[in-house]
What we know:
By secondary structure, the chain is of the alpha/beta class. Belongs to the ATP-dependent AMP-binding enzyme family.
Amino acid sequence: MLTHRQMLDRGAVSYGPRTALVDASGRRITYTDLDRMTDALAAGLLGAGARPGETSVWLSGNCLEYLIAYFATAKAGLAFSPLNYWLRPAELEGLVDLVAPSVVFAGREWTDVLDAMPAVGAARSRVVLGGAATGWTGWDEVLTGPGSLDGVPDDENALHEIVFTSGTTGASKGVMRSQRGRILDSVFSALAFEVRRSENLVFCGPQFHIGGASVPNQVLVQGGTATIVAFEPEVVGAAIAGGASYMIGVPAHYHLLFDSGVLEKIDTTRMRGCYVGGSVASKALFGSISDHFPAADLVQGYGSTESGPHTLALRGQDFLDHYGTLGLPVPGTEVRVVDPAEAARELPAGEIGELLVRSDSVMSGYFRRDDLTAAVLSADGWLRTGDLVSRDEQGFFTLAGRAKEMIISGGENVYPKEVEDVLSEHPAVAEVAVIGIPDPVYEERVLALVRRSGDATGTTGEELRQFVRARLAGFKTPKDVHFVDDFPRTGMGKIAKGELAQQYGTVFDA
């Protein structure tokens, strides 16, 4: 059985006094403590009325408590759904309504927002971190509350994770995964990325992403240490000075870390691996990583919330020999390159097609959206990624394009249609196209190209930016708004976004 209860029980026996988790304040939690605390929280949730098979949501900044809640909900038989704290209240409410949680975890700064949501009011338990709030139970109170795990099913195939991602339509989709899927992904990705049990892995990405659990689990399944911090150059620098040996970040993290100068007085020679996620970074950035961390391997991977997330991996000498590729499949992963219009037709090496993935860690589907699941996941388990790739004769994959038009800004996924739909609500906007353009720090930034309505000549780009900012998360808000008289068109009259990307891709370079 591959369950988190068994993983942590055995971890306590095998690695008891070793440090499992560290935070920015220096707080340390051993494997013995992690097992004990997650047992206690799980029992406290059940004692407060939660029942196996129900759901929970989490809304807070990065902290060790995230992983304690993650594992505790698994032990209690609850599904766990982390929410994006950058979303606006209306965006959050739609996700909360869909999950219909029995348990709500939140940092004190988010309790007022959540209190306005009927689905939160209907929850059996509301647990607050970092303060007190009327109608909410304190974290420590639940941790020490009455309850028992006796009789709770320990099912490796039961739903545990509901992690939200956005689709090409902008509609949020909850990706479902079992405990078995997560643990297998952790083991296989640790093998592929050569993450060892002696590792001190520093994680600074938002925990509401799939990586919030999948990345720390790579060391927690084998007795290593995960250092959990929120990204600030000084904080990450302190973690590196404290002995971190493996760093996970998107290109923006590395740019900001290097530009800050915090590494100038720090011994960086203990860093043995630097993973760059989010998208294919520039050669200049990889050179800068090698300059700042001379003993570290360069590491890169490919995946998605739906696929595991670890699907392809590249590290060390393979990275140097096959620079520009996405790497080889992670152990336990099957991959195919097929004709996008005819998925049954597999393509030979060298031809560009859609990447299909099958493994034990591929999602089981989209939460309460069987229609969307059927569109991407076949009955025999093959996931259509929507990404276009080619495979060379040695089996290494190269990304050719994103069939979904997704923009990656600072490691965050932005889907143009969602932003276009909001801008279209403004009376000054007659027509709009949103594209991603290169950015030296954030990989890509969002550009909105707007054709004004006839009587709106005085409307400014900043006015439109603020209009979006009030309705969508900041990372989705266009960094630039450019007004046009008309758009290039396809033969069917649609806006030709490919031409726009070529035309505007260098106009706004910093």
